[in-house]
Write the structure tokens for this entry.
Amino acid sequence: MQKRISKVAIRQRHNSSTSSITHQNGFSLIEFALTLVLLVVGATLSLPTYREMVEKQDLTEGAEQIVAFINMARAESVERQQPFTLVYSRSSEGEWCFGASPGDTTCDCTEENSAAENYCAIDSAPRLINSTNTDNTRLTRMGNDTGSFTFDPVQAADTSANSPLIVEIGSETENILLAMVVNNSDRVILCLKDSSESLSGYEVCPADLAGQGVTESIL
């Protein structure tokens, strides 16, 4: 009998100790609810900042791709010592494209058939960039919705050869805008249009670009 009582007492003490540990290590329903509320509030506050960061990254990547494409056409012109024609187009739906081809004849950057005579190519290799390559980059405005710009290494000093190409490049929500200018000396300028915005690596466009070979105002 005494042994049985001892075993019962030991079991009761063990159960009491286990219950105490579980209570100390566990969460009450109120504590869990408070933690969940704090997590939701933190996520809500950080979401706009994250979206803005992604939007800025998409804009800069898209803009730099366009600049790299234009610089490629200029470099080909210099290397081959012959004119190269850059064409551009923007539809009312916001779709846009740039294309390049050797010589002073213009290709069509909206042409998708590589066998077509007016397909934009250099040595049979496609030379195109369009809105499908940069999904979240928008060309919100152009000086003209369609046109061309000729790179000519022989006449590069002739500032009357071209009218400057001015393009407004926007983020997906168009909250942030960059201005891209190809001036008469074939130099590509990329600057921030609105002084109230900030974008790492880009300065605000100067009010007067006359010193850069641009007499037209920024869009």
Notes: Residues 3 and 15 are 19 Å apart (CA to CA).
